[in-house]
Amino acid sequence: MMPENCLQSVLLLLIGILPRVLGAFIGIDIGTDVSDMPTASDVVAILKSHQIDHVRLFDADGRMLNALANTSIEVIVSVTNEEVLAIGQSPSVAATWISRNVAAYVPETNITAIAVGSEVLSSIPHAAPILVPAMNNLHKALVASNLNFQIKVSTPQSMNVIARPFPPSIATFNSSWNTTIYEMLQFLKNTNSYFMLNAYPYYGYTTGEGIFPLDYALFQPLSPAKQIVDPNTLFHYDSMFDAMVDAAYYSIAALNFSGIPIVVTETGWPWLGGANEPDATVENAESYNNNLIRRVLNNSGPPSQPTMPMNTYIYELFNEDMRRGPTSEKNWGVFFANGSSVYSLSLSTSNQISGNASGVFCIAKEDADSDKLRDGLNWACGPGHADCSAIQEGKPCYYPDTLQNHASYAYNEYYQKMHSVGGTCDFGGTATTTTADPSYGSCAFAGTSNSSGSTESTPSAFAPISPDSGTSMLVSEIGFLMMGSILHLFFCLR
């Protein structure tokens, strides 16, 4: 019989193969402070329609976990800040949490990580002494459930834990948290986990008092006179995002740790702000997130760690209108609650979220009375002779299965066919026109400049490689790493 420790080491080798060969990914955070939050099944339908295959939940909501079952979408579930203390103080509480919120859903739901709290050190510093014990208790519960190889435990931290992030080469963690962070890094190293970082160039720029140019925060090209260079390493930083991630790597190294990858669990840019938030605009949000995606999917790391992909989660899926704080706090979403996009966003090399178009569209008002919406929908699909086949079950515009979404599609179908002969976008005051294309995924809304209703997305090129080169490289690396695992197994058995 194979020795147990040998088998575990081989499994660790095999588990380590996939992240290296599959490269970087873009995921998305799902907040729920939304007054008209779609149902869990509608949320999953939006994710699937846009080929989003990595999500982070800010809790462990059973409805979402059930809806994500059998989708293969990789899920990070979260321990809320309110739960951290009890879990850190009691292994039995941690075991119960794992049983109820993780073991009850796997393997059907592809849970891959647990985020313990949210920015605990900077948001609830009194809980710092209990943070790593909470992580340890959860990990031990995963071991007891034989889930520790599949599911990692980590804790998202903000850039505030780094005392001075620029230049990156001299960055260190805030010394007041050194003991906790050292214990955390030791835990991450011992469990083969990763460091979760929340990195927001928006705040780095808006609070920087003009030190850095806006282009630097938005991944835009910099003129030779504005190049950002670390004077100690002479590394050039083309974006604040790269510098932030590198600052975290240097901070980890300053505590004598290496080989711990960083995953950015939150980043993004608000698309709407108040009078004193002039940089929170649709144009900046669209620019930041599209450039971020291109940067991450080129599969390279920051200057000091060029071979470490920067897996990243965009904050966030929906606008959270119930959040407290300035206007910008409520407007980080890339989608409205009805599933339409806030702006054009390419989440991958082959998937385009349609945003602004040259056409005019007729959609349902967000605050429209539901009875009037239903009447308008029935009229458009009946006497109005709108083609409503696309919103039937099993068709591309059925999801999200909401009255507002279906009414928007029907209203627009009617409007595009009839506006040239006097048809209006009113429907009893429940409709309005917009130039923002409400199309999403494979659901295409007809537009005045595109009466066929078809839309095309042009894949973005991220690297000048031949069609076959990526596959051959992937296969060869898998073969090489698999051979290493087989050899390791051979010597274990000798």
Automatic annotation (TrEMBL):
<keyword id="KW-0336">GPI-anchor</keyword>
<dbReference type="GO" id="GO:0098552">
    <property type="term" value="C:side of membrane"/>
</dbReference>
<feature type="domain" description="X8">
    <location>
        <begin position="360"/>
        <end position="445"/>
    </location>
</feature>
<feature type="signal peptide">
    <location>
        <begin position="1"/>
        <end position="23"/>
    </location>
</feature>
<dbReference type="InterPro" id="IPR017853">
    <property type="entry name" value="GH"/>
</dbReference>
<protein>
    <recommendedName>
        <fullName>glucan endo-1,3-beta-D-glucosidase</fullName>
        <ecNumber>3.2.1.39</ecNumber>
    </recommendedName>
</protein>
<dbReference type="Pfam" id="PF07983">
    <property type="entry name" value="X8"/>
</dbReference>
<dbReference type="InterPro" id="IPR000490">
    <property type="entry name" value="Glyco_hydro_17"/>
</dbReference>
<keyword id="KW-0449">Lipoprotein</keyword>
<dbReference type="GO" id="GO:0005975">
    <property type="term" value="P:carbohydrate metabolic process"/>
</dbReference>
<dbReference type="GO" id="GO:0009506">
    <property type="term" value="C:plasmodesma"/>
</dbReference>
<keyword id="KW-0378">Hydrolase</keyword>
<dbReference type="Pfam" id="PF00332">
    <property type="entry name" value="Glyco_hydro_17"/>
</dbReference>
<keyword id="KW-0325">Glycoprotein</keyword>
<keyword id="KW-0732">Signal</keyword>
<dbReference type="InterPro" id="IPR044965">
    <property type="entry name" value="Glyco_hydro_17_plant"/>
</dbReference>
<dbReference type="GO" id="GO:0005886">
    <property type="term" value="C:plasma membrane"/>
</dbReference>
<keyword id="KW-1003">Cell membrane</keyword>
<keyword id="KW-0611">Plant defense</keyword>
<dbReference type="GO" id="GO:0006952">
    <property type="term" value="P:defense response"/>
</dbReference>
<keyword id="KW-0472">Membrane</keyword>
<comment type="similarity">
    <text>Belongs to the glycosyl hydrolase 17 family.</text>
</comment>
<dbReference type="GO" id="GO:0042973">
    <property type="term" value="F:glucan endo-1,3-beta-D-glucosidase activity"/>
</dbReference>
<keyword id="KW-0326">Glycosidase</keyword>
<keyword id="KW-1015">Disulfide bond</keyword>
<dbReference type="InterPro" id="IPR012946">
    <property type="entry name" value="X8"/>
</dbReference>
